């Protein structure tokens, strides 16, 4: 009897050891894969920054280099002082215009999409599923399909050549609504809404003071994605800002103007322009990136 019990303990210990060994191997493999993916993502950015510090001759003759050069100051000086570049690029105007559009559109998109998802999740009304299906159907329509009609409408109501058509339509963001609704269904307790109603809290106040703080990870994640999308948006601003004045151009429009101009062939300056244009995106990501993991983790746990 004692021998049988001892063998059972040995078998259990062996199984436990094998399990931990297998778990350690899996963790190591996942860690190595994550390192490889991180390198794949970061190396192009690093090469971009390195090329921004090199001369055009060095880039064209020597190709890729992992060692930074000493020409960053010269590249920035050419960009800000030479007339052929000043006509197409102005960092102050570019940052100002893109920040106005990106911050305004992101704020409207996240707030109203969160409110829409909150209504679809909290309230049980007739046609709720049909409304959500309609929102999902809108996701399938590319912006290029509606761009002609949108531009014609903006011209008729005289809203072209300003930033209103680039900010206000961001209220309708079906992809953000979809993410928010899925997040709320898995992580937002409806009982707390019922408790707020019993205490006499109004519906809008409940959303502002209870819903938003509890959904902060989801709001932060979507704010990052919305900011990056609106910051990098070239298609819509180039369509709406018909006069194409440098005072109105966004940063992507300025970058495209330099990259598409065959006469401006200094590769060092081109890489410097691109490096400057991604600074706000990197800053916003670093500030809010901690919420991405929190949002994914909480959104993946079902109560």
For the record, give the distance between the C-alpha atoms at the N and C termini, rounded to a whole number.
45 Å
Indicate the proportion of strand residues.
under 5%
Radius of gyration using CA atoms only: 26 Å
Order of H and E elements: HHHHHHHHHHHHHHHHH
- General shape: flat
Count of β-strands: 0
What is the overall pLDDT average? 84
Count, helices: 17
How is the main sheet built?
Answer: none
Low-confidence stretches: 299-303
The helix fraction, in percent, is over 70%
* Class of secondary structure makeup: mainly alpha
Walk me through what this model shows.
It is a single chain. The chain has helices at residues 2-52, 56-62, 72-81, 83-86, 91-122, 128-139, 143-156, 164-167, 174-187, 191-198, 203-214, 216-231, 235-240, 251-259, 267-277, 279-288, 290-299. It is 76% helix and 0% strand. The longest helix has 51 residues, at 2-52. Helix 5 packs antiparallel against helix 12 (216-231). With 303 residues, the protein is an all-alpha fold.
Q: What's this, in brief?
A:
With 303 residues, the chain is mainly α.
């Amino acid at each position: 009897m004692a021998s049988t019990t001892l063998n059972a303990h040995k078998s259990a210990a062996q199984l436990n050891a094998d399990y931990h060994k297998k778990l350690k191997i899996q963790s190591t493999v996942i860690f190595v894969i994550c390192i490889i993916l991180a390198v794949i993502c970061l190396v192009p950015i690093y090469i971009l920054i390195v090329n921004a510090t090199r001369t055009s001759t060095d880039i064209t003759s020597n190709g890729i280099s992992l060692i930074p050069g000493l020409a960053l100051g010269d590249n920035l000086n050419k960009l800000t002082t030479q007339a052929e570049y000043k006509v197409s690029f102005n960092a102050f105007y570019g940052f100002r215009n893109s920040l106005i559009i990106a911050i305004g559109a992101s704020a409207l998109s996240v707030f109203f999409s969160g409110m829409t998802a909150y209504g679809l999740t909290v309230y049980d009304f007739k046609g709720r599923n049909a409304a959500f299906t309609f929102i999902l159907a809108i996701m399938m329509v590319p912006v290029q399909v509606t761009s002609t009609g949108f531009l014609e409408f903006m011209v008729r109501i005289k809203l072209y050549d300003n930033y209103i058509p680039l900010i206000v339509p961001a209220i309708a963001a079906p992809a953000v609504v979809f993410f928010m609704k899925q997040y709320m269904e898995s992580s937002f307790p409806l009982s707390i809404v019922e408790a707020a109603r019993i205490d006499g809290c109004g519906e809008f106040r409940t959303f502002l003071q209870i819903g938003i703080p509890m959904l902060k990870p989801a709001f932060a994640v979507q704010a990052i994605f919305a900011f990056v999308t609106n910051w990098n948006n070239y298609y819509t601003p180039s369509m709406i800002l018909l006069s194409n004045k440098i005072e109105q151009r966004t940063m992507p429009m300025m970058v495209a103007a330099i990259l598409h101009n065959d006469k401006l062939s200094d590769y060092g300056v081109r890489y410097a322009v691109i490096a400057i244009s991604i600074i706000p995106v990197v800053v916003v990501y670093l500030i809010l990136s901690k919420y991405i993991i929190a949002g994914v983790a909480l959104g993946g746990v079902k109560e």
